[in-house]
Write a structure and sequence with these properties.
- It is elongated and about 130 Å long.
- The longest helix is centred in the middle third of the chain and has 29 residues.
- It is built from 17 helices and six strands.
- The protein is mainly alpha-helical and about 425 residues long.
- Strand 3 and strand 4 form a beta hairpin.
- Helix 2 packs across helix 3 and helix 3 packs across helix 11.
- The N and C termini lie far apart (about 120 Å).
- The strands form three sheets. A two-stranded antiparallel sheet has the order 1-2.
Length: about 425
Amino acid sequence: MDTIASLFSFITTPVSWVIVQFHSMYGKIFGPDTGWAWGLSIVSLVILIRICLIPLFVKQIKSTRAMQTLQPEMKKIQERYKSDKQRQSEEMMKLYKETGTNPLSSCLPILAQSPFFFALYHVLNGIATGSTIGVINDSLLASARKAHIFGAPLAAKFTDSSAKVESLGASLTDVRVVTAIMIVLMSASQFYTQRQLMTKNVDTTVKTPFMQQQKMLMYVFPVMFAVFGINFPVGVLVYWLTTNVWTMGQQMYVIHNNPTPGSKAQAAYLERLTKHVTSHGKTRKRSEKTIVKAIVAKGRDRNEFERKFINALNKAGLAAQTDGTVTKSESAAAVQSEDGTATTDAAAAPKRQQPKRQSKAQRQSGGAKAVGDSEPKTSLSKSDEPEDAKPSAAAKKAEPKPAGGTRSKAQSGQRKGPQRPKSPSKK
């Protein structure tokens, strides 16, 4: 481990300088030789590093989700070229290039932290051996060797001998108890972080080998921390426990506010968002607009939870827009009542009247007039009609009959127009 740590010696000076600056600040509050001053300096170093790594963490999330969406295509390539490994790798690289994904992006935060981790290990190892390193001079070295965290020296390890521990002013029992508790907490936090990712923030609609790998890592990483943790100094255990807690909190925030599509976390998030939007009638935060915009852009490719969200908005009289905003739907627009007041109840809108169905005789005679549309009545009665308007009996006799039968026959279902004469055999 010392050989590996020495490879990162170029960064030990900046790391030791940051620790000394935080130590000078906390030393004024808790005392320069206390474990609180040195322990909080290490915690502050972790927080500073993780804040700088937030852009990489965001990139890791995007890469992980992109890899999840590519799993079905990757599985097809593996099955198609299972006998040709070279062609399989070429098709995989082509798929990564076309989609702009990088499998190593999910490992970026861990890779970026490794130089700081090994540099801190190198600094603490120098404190344990009594050698100055970086900007830590003799006075700071003596102060660090006096610092104890819950009775365990900052540079002590679980595997140290009793003589070495006594030289640091502590007992072997205290060191092993403190380091064992910190190793258990470190492993438990890692297990909970990975389990939270698998149970809440994984697309359950796609069953791929990627999920099996994540399940395996959920058990492998805690075991690795437990095995290697017994060789870490107490200060390094403080560093690693702090970064695990930070990762767990950061992941909880992401799962709560930006879950993976198709996961249980997305179902819970969209349920909360539905209540929030329907109560306020709009999206208020930028993150909410981003989620709604992405759902609208999917169109028919929406998953079950996203369709439920859109349907819930429609039932509430709202419509999601392409820019992520939510407006009132046209189908539930306000309707002015007779007294001039407006109502948003969709039931209050006037219903479309269906035309009355006509009888067969009415359809054959040219159709009947609509209900309520009777012919206009004249103001003249029978008795008031002028005599010249009344047809005479001779005119009635001279009036030609319509060809093809009477009107009554046409109404009874007979064909209009001239009729074909019956055959002589039927007469």
